[in-house]
Amino acid sequence: MSIAFLGPAGTFTESALRQIEPDPAHHLPVASVPAALAAVRDGRAASAVVPIENSVEGGVTATLDALAEGTELRICAEMLVPIRFALVALRPMELAQVRAVATHSHAWAQVRGWVQENMPEVEYIPASSTAAGALGLLASGESAGYDAAICSPAILAAHPELTVLADDIGDNRAAVTRFVQVAEPGEQLPERTGSDRTTLVIPLWSDRAGALLEILEQFSTRGVNLSRIESRPTGASLGDYFFSVDLDGHILDERVSEAVVGLRRICPTTRFLGSYPRAEQGVTEVEGRHTDGAFRQARDWVQQLREGR
Ligand SMILES: O=C(O)C(=O)Cc1ccccc1
């Protein structure tokens, strides 16, 4: 079965997808992140690839929200894609001649400085993806409603008829986006590698003082490092929030599973979105008192006490 992704071909999401499935015959392009997750939930796709975190803009809220609600899904892999933006048009033109430019909102957020400096008067036309903006130019020409698009230079391989007006226009040249592959729960957990990540959704169960501290304590007392924490409104009412959290480690690590037990005890609707290998190389450093051996040794000792020994 196929893998759903934010299409069409030529998006940054497709670059991420190609890292795990190079054959386009298995790609199912859809028009949004929620549509990609819906394709998995209703069985049209075996999995989906969606952006989750950007090194410049932080968490991708459309993804965090769509994973926090609806039936549970599991992240089984992650991929990193370096992000480079090009401004393309149908013909060579001066930047001053560009009246309107189409792109995806994430892309727009990452070129704002360059646009302000080089084409401050330009109108922004939101597109469902960077590639959709560029292909709209090719399909509709002058009647597209915009003169240029901001997209991945990768699109030029398939469409050399596009003219590059400016390349590498991102405000941060080192920008990287992290993508995840998401599937239905029920598959086997990805193996523990020693360099893993676990993603959780933690609804803030109480608005009393110290509620967040109590959540964080579950991690800190077990030596679990958080690599991302974001609060998002649930949408239910003003002030109703959930935390979206990434932590270093696998649910098969004793320190992580103990932290998740503690969390679930104080927050019974905690959602486990998966444990999966980190894309970056390296090993998660764990202090002696937080290793699997230390947890087991302590648990065995208590077990003996409970057995009256
Ligand atoms: O529109 C795309 O090409 C996407 O894949 C979404 C996106 C846009 C900008 C940066 C990262 C992902």
TrEMBL record:
Catalytic activity: prephenate + H(+) = 3-phenylpyruvate + CO2 + H2O
CDD domains: ACT_CM-PDT, PBP2_Aa-PDT_like
Gene Ontology annotations for the cellular component aspect, listed alphabetically: cytoplasm
InterPro entries with a match to the protein in the record: ACT-like_dom_sf (IPR045865), ACT_dom (IPR002912), Chor_mutase/pphenate_deHydtase (IPR008242), Preph_deHydtase (IPR001086), Preph_deHydtase_CS (IPR018528)
Enzyme class: lyase
Superkingdom assignment: Bacteria
Residue intervals of the ACT domain: 200-277
Keywords: Amino-acid biosynthesis, Aromatic amino acid biosynthesis, Lyase, Phenylalanine biosynthesis
Annotated Prephenate dehydratase domain residues: 2-184
Protein's GO biological process: L-phenylalanine biosynthetic process
Signal peptide coordinates: none
EC number in record: 4.2.1.51
Pathway the protein acts in: Amino-acid biosynthesis; L-phenylalanine biosynthesis; phenylpyruvate from prephenate: step 1/1
Tagged with keyword Amino-acid biosynthesis: yes
Classification via PANTHER family: PREPHENATE DEHYDRATASE P PROTEIN, PREPHENATE DEHYDRATASE-RELATED
The protein, known as: Prephenate dehydratase
Top-level taxonomy: Bacteria, Bacillati, Actinomycetota, Actinomycetes, Micrococcales
